[in-house]
Amino acid sequence: MAHHADNTDDIITVTCGAVTSPSDVNNTSVPDLFLLLESEPMFIAASLLYKVGLVVVFVAGIVGNVMTLVIQHHIAGDSDTGLSVFISSLAVADSAMLAYSCASWYLLALNLLDPHDQRDSVCKIAYFLVYSLGLMPTWILVAMTLQRAASILFPHRVKAAWTARKAKVTVCVIVLASLALNSHMLYGRKLQTLPGGEQQCGYVSEEYRHVFEDVWPSVDSVLGIFLPFALLIGANVVLVNRVRRSVEEAKQSLATGSSRQQLQTREQKASNMTVTLICVSLAFLLLTLPLALYYVAKRKAGISIQPGATEYVREMADNAFAEAVCNILYLSNNAINFYIYILTGSRYREALKGMLGCRAAQCE
Prior knowledge:
The protein is mostly helical and 364 residues long. The chain has 12 helices and 4 strands, in the order E-E-H-H-H-H-H-H-H-E-E-H-H-H-H-H. It has helices at residues 30-38, 41-76, 82-109, 120-153, 155-161, 164-181, 185-188, 206-253, 258-301, 309-332, 337-344, 346-363, and strands at residues 13-15, 18-20, 189-193, 199-203. Helix 2 (41-76) runs parallel beside helix 10. The radius of gyration is 24 Å and the shape is elongated. It is found in: Membrane. It holds the Pfam family 7tm_1.
């Protein structure tokens, strides 16, 4: 699910603090609209949210993803597993998404420049990258969750068949499919010069504009949010049911003493795994769904031009703040996984404590 708003010929579009307009609204000049918009409290709040929120999300996300790679290497050692490959690939994909989106949005928030409007090649590649990078971590997460669900349903078969090599192939397929799916943007987007001399990243034709603005957002929402979440819910239902059945069977068969200790260990591992999966899926839903719903509502409702420019600008400021909140939440999905692993996974906590303990001992 990508998250860039485009300028149109008839309305002002607010994106991360940048506003452009090719025409006047109700005989109000563009500079006056700028001044009106920049004085709106909701627009000021949106700009501040981008300037502060992007830095917080970027730092927390990059640190978390790097720690995920380090701890995963510490846990797996030299023997990679399919799960290890997925977790590491997810951390890399999340970091790429954070690096690109936070950098471009921060430039917009500071009113420095819009990277999309600088060169024709940048216009094409920028949209191609942001949509592609948005899909990669989502489907790596889906593949990882489905693999873990299958490993519980068919433990011996999956363990023997699903090797680290096959996991790497799956990640490569996801990357290539994401790039291929969005490759039409390399043709369809182009730099255009408006009547006033201003440049913006536009379209090669009105037909492609219709596809990109009216059709593709729905396709992107289905592939980037709704379908992945449905698959994640299905996998989690299977996992929870299987874990419950496994624990119930263990309670019936295990006796006292050392067997009771084995039962407690088994229940703890099952609980940790289930909680981690549920939390990752719930975080994905809570953090990505608002942006999808926002754009669906925005496309259906549109923006009504009020009789006066003041009311119109206030409406734009409200939309800017709502979009800022949704965008920050969306990017947080690429920054939060490590902290979920630490909170819900005992192996990650133990590995982190071990690493910190070793460093503390070395320092002493």
